[in-house]
Amino acid sequence: MNSDFKKQLISIIGTKNLLLNDWEKKPFSFGWRYGSGTALAVVKPGNLAELWKVLDLCVKNDLIIIMQAANTGLTGGSTPYGSDYDRDVIIINTLRIDRIHLLNNGNEILALAGSTLYDLEKKLMPLGREPHSVIGSTSIGASIVGGVCNNSGGSLVKRGPAYTEMSLYAKIDKNGKLLLINDLDINLGKSPEEILYNLENECFSKDDILKSKKASSNETYKKLVRNVNSTKPARFNSDPKMLCGASGSAGKVAVFAVRLKTYPSAKRNQVFYVGANHPDTFWKIRRDVLLNFKSLPVAGDYMHKDCYDAAKKYSKDTFIVLEKLGTKFLPTLFELKRKVDLLSENISILPSNLSDRIMQFLSLFWPNHLPKRIEKFRKRFDHHWIIEMSDEGIDEARDYFNKFFKNSEGDFFECTKKEGKKAILHRFTAASAFGRYSKIHENKIGGQMSMDIAFPRNEKNWFEKLPPELDNSFELKFYYGHLFCHVLHQNYIIKKGLDPKKIKDKMFEIYDRRGAEYPSEHNVGHEYVAKKNLLNFYKKLDPTNSFNSGIGFSSKNKFWK
Prior knowledge:
Blueprint: H1 3-13, E1 18-19, H2 22-29, E2 41-43, H3 48-60, E3 64-68, E4 89-93, E5 100-103, E6 108-112, H4 117-124, E7 129-130, H5 144-149, E8 167-172, E9 178-182, H6 192-200, H7 221-226, E10 254-261, E11 263-264, E12 269-276, H8 279-292, E13 299-304, H9 305-314, H10 316-325, H11 330-346, H12 354-363, H13 372-380, E14 383-390, H14 392-404, E15 411-414, H15 417-428, H16 430-440, E16 445-454, H17 468-471, E17 474-482, E18 487-495, H18 500-513, H19 532-541
Parallel strand pairs: 2-4, 3-4
Antiparallel strand pairs: 1-2, 5-6, 6-10, 7-11, 8-9, 8-10, 12-14, 12-15, 13-14, 13-17, 16-18, 17-18
Helix pairs in contact: 1-3, 9-16
């Protein structure tokens, strides 16, 4: 690194917040599950003014900028990918900028760049309100801005993907000039410095908050998801209707803050655990609920029995950590994990992925963490559906299930509060099971493949049946997802000796024939090709291609050459 550039960075953020050696950079340059690459440095500004100064300095030095918060994405979209960029890469991590401002008595919030869903939940709880997204992303410590930038859908049936037309972000115009765009509909001043100071320190009055016609949530989703006869998916990342400013930007701008709607908390919640052996049973339930229920479910998440078993075995430690300690402990856990893995890398006699092997070994000695009634359902049923209802919807669902299962295969029960929390957490730790299995068996498998698929709303054959020659390519399949909106996460362990790329291309051909969209909510990252309309959106936001270059397998070169 150029010494003058280094001195300038230190003058802005201090020495301890500039990470230069490989060990320090590794937590930020390696994806949570996928992707890694080379970065010149990791910079950790502590406030919005520092972030602006760092951005300005990076632009003047013609660097590629990768914006990053919690780095919990599943497709590697917040890390470098490889080392074939035409300019040096700087990672700017925003987790120190974590303030959340309440607006209009908590009916809206202003979330700064590094604030998390977990902290937002805690802040809103005393007010009897909830954020736009809850457990799922929340359980792994995801940031609010990250969810908006990726139009993350999460599990919520009523609220849809994270979306807002109100944000404050920096972009680089076609002439290479850094601009601050204030779409918050809040009077904060004129100069970037004034705007950022007033925002950070909440130096604005109620009169400065404009009555805006801009959306701060996806108000159309409830109607969309009920249209079960549509030949189009309910939500997917390249949907043009969901691309606006920061929303769907995937790091092609630097987001300082987003303005989002909050929601009243339910007075009552009830989790129903539903099991069946035939996919058609769930297809019928889905249609009945979405077409006929007065109250939409809060959430409805699916797990296949094989995924259930894998999560039980390979996500036990993650489950226990999240249940007992919460997401606040995750950064500490990841730091410890990285130290152990670095040790194993530097000592040849130690196995790779040592931390995963240690945690997996220790988990063998921990008692079964899953409730007895859920375990009994695992023995009886192949397909598991965790459906959460609220308020008037509880009685509606109870009456429906009692009548439905008198004449249909399958069964259900109402979870206690403890059972419900464990059932939901078990489902959402499934992603870590996929990664854990791959790491422990890395020498015995041919690779891994994760598919994030949005099927048409009228798709009856939602449960995948592959041609035998393709099905035989896989050692294991992990099926889970958000069944009401037909978003399924289908992860595969490929048999040794087979070509993952060829298999993936064949899978995409099948999805294309079925009218599916992909990715549905995890965004393209470095795992999916950005479709034309999405790529055009990126180019419009970032004409010099200086932010998150190479995303969606696009060009890594300046001006997209």
